[in-house]
Structure formats: C-alpha cells, structure tokens
Amino acid sequence: MTEDDQNKEEQQKESMPRNNRTWLCTVLFMDIVEYSKHSVDHQMMVKQSFSMLVSDSLKGLPKDDCIKLDTGDGAAICYLGAPEEVLYVAMGLRDAFVDVKAICETCYEVRMGINLGPVKILEDINGQRNIIGDGINAAQRIMSFAEPNQLLVSRAYYDVISCLSEENPGMFAYIGVHNDKHVRQYDAYKVLSVEGRRQAAAAADDVRIAATAAAEQSAANLDERILKIVQEQLALIIGPMASVLVKQALRKSSSIEQLYQLLAEEIPTDAERERFLSGKDHTH
After folding, report:
1. Reduced to 3 states, what is the DSSP secondary structure of residue 2?
2. 42-77 burial, b if ≥16 CB within 10 A, otherwise e?
3. In degrees, to the nearest 5, what angle opens at C-alpha 36 toward C-alphas 32 and 41?
4. Burial degree of 244 (CB within 10 A; 0-12, 13-18, 19+)
5. Quick check: 245 and 264 in contact, CB under 8 A?
6. What is the C-alpha to C-alpha distance for residues 2 and 284, in angstroms, rounded to an integer?
7. What is the rounded distance in angstroms from the CA atom of residue 131 to the CA atom of residue 118?
8. What architecture does CATH give domain 19-192?
9. pLDDT tens, the chain, 284 aa long
10. What is the pTM of this model?
11. CB 249 within 8 A of CB 259
C-alpha cells in the first residue's frame, strides 16, 4: 500500500462516526408516580409541568454534554461532564417536585435515581442522540426502588462522589441491598435533604455524647468500687506513688481487668507484677 493510500485510509477512519465507543456516563432517571392511571388531560398537565421543571434545571449544563430522553412517563438525562453536577441538578428537581406536591393532593410525585456506568451513544429514527447500555438500565433500576419524591443513587455513583469532598458522604444514607426482577442486586443510597442531613448529624452527636457519658459513668463506678483496694495493693509494692498511678490509669480504663493491666506495667519485676495481678480476685 502506498503512502497516499495509507493517508486516505486514516482520514476515512477519522471521519467515521464512533458509534461503537463506550462512554462512562452519569444517568439521572425520573419516573412520574402513577402517571398512566390518570386521564389524558391530567397526563398532559402533569407532563407539561414536569418537562418545564426539568428543562429549567438543565439550563446550566453544557448542551453538548447533556442527552435528554423522553420516556413517556418520565425522562432520562445522560450527562458526559462532571458527575457531581448531576447530583445538584437532581437535588434541586427533587425539592421542586416536593413543592409541586404541596400545592394540592392531586399534583404529581416523581421517583428519581442516579447511576454512573457505561453507555453507547447512537442516533434514533429522528436523527437525535440516544443512549443504550447498562449505565441507563441500572439508573432505571435504582429509580424503581425510590419512594415518591425520593432521590436514590447507586453504589458506583456514591463511591465516586464520596471521594470528591469530605462533606459529600454526609449527604447520603445507605438504605440496603435491593433486588430487581432478574435477581440482580443493587446497593442503594438515599440523598438526604438539608433537614435530613441536620437530623443525621444531630443523631450522630447524640450517639457520641451517650458513649462518652457511658464511659465516664463506667469509670466513676469503677472508681467508687475498687479504688481503695487497688491503691492499697499497689502501695504495698511501689509505695506512695500508687495513688497517682491509680488515678491516671482510671482515665484509660473501663473495666477492672484493664485497670490492673495498666497498673501492672508500672511494676518492674515479674514476681511483684504477678503478685499484684493475683490481688484482682479480692475486688469481687
């Protein structure tokens, strides 16, 4: 093959559409709850409101990186840019859907799910970009596990987002493993609202406070019960320093065994150490 033929072949390859390329894409899948149960007029009203909210929320994303698919009773958004941008769009949409539902009881609710996974981009019969692949399929499965006006994310998406900022893991709550109809398992995480994050942080603080109080109470009970006995036993071996060492060890101890072990480390000889440890039986 001549050099000109090689150049022509390379140019042809470069000009060919890369339909077989696999993209790692963030997919937001949304489904209007019980959409098909309403009348056609009601469906039109709901879909117009839904489409307007979705379109407004996507205005800040680059059009070339965003592929929008109408699924009939919802929508799927495939985004090729930074994964965290979809999270903030979805959180804003979730809050907007909550506000819509608060207007009247007959207004609609939406389930939402986000996944990060592989997709392929192709053209549909209208010449518009479409996506297929496990990335969008998994996003739909994650969405199906959500409650009305709840936003869930997959494990794959959570693992990426939680590494981007120290604050990001606090935005999620693990809700367990779910199986789809094909018995495929999915780890799902709920995206917390601002109020939900505040409650989760308060609950964590309560747990820490309770644990600290329990440790302090345990040390106090231990102090009242055996301080005098242990101090007398240790004083017979090392002298007046026993009272100081006992007080220091109490701060680090939550049981009799632990207290004796810490104090035994201060005794220089093996024989005296064994004699001190044997005195533990007299504290019961």
Report:
1. coil
2. ebeebbebbeebbeebbeebeeeebbbbeeebbbbb
3. 95
4. exposed
5. no
6. 97
7. 10
8. 2-Layer Sandwich (3.30)
9. 566 555 555 555 444 445 578 899 999 999 999 999 989 998 999 999 999 999 999 998 998 899 999 999 999 999 999 999 999 999 999 999 988 887 876 689 999 999 999 999 988 888 888 899 999 999 999 999 999 999 999 999 999 998 887 777 788 999 999 988 877 899 999 999 766 556 545 555 555 555 555 555 555 555 566 677 777 888 788 887 877 887 777 777 777 788 788 888 888 888 888 888 787 766 65
10. 0.64
11. yes
Q: How many Å is the Cα radius of gyration of the chain? A: 32
How far apart, in Å, are the Cα atoms of 199 and each of 44, 167, 283?
A: 38, 15, 44
- In one-letter notation, the amino acid at residue 88 is Y
Pick the closest to residue 173 from 201, 149, 148 (CA basis): 201
Name the residue type at position 56: D
Answer yes or no: are the C-beta atoms of 190 and 152 closer than 8 Å.
yes
Cα 76 to chain centroid distance, Å, stands at 22
Sign of CA dihedral 171, 177, 179, 185: positive
Residues of each domain in the chain carrying CATH 3.30.70.1230 = 19-192
Strands 172-179, 185-191: pairing kind: antiparallel
Structure tokens at 127: 């010449």
Give Cα separations from 53 to 35, 73, 151 (angstroms).
17, 15, 16
The DSSP letter of residue 193 is P
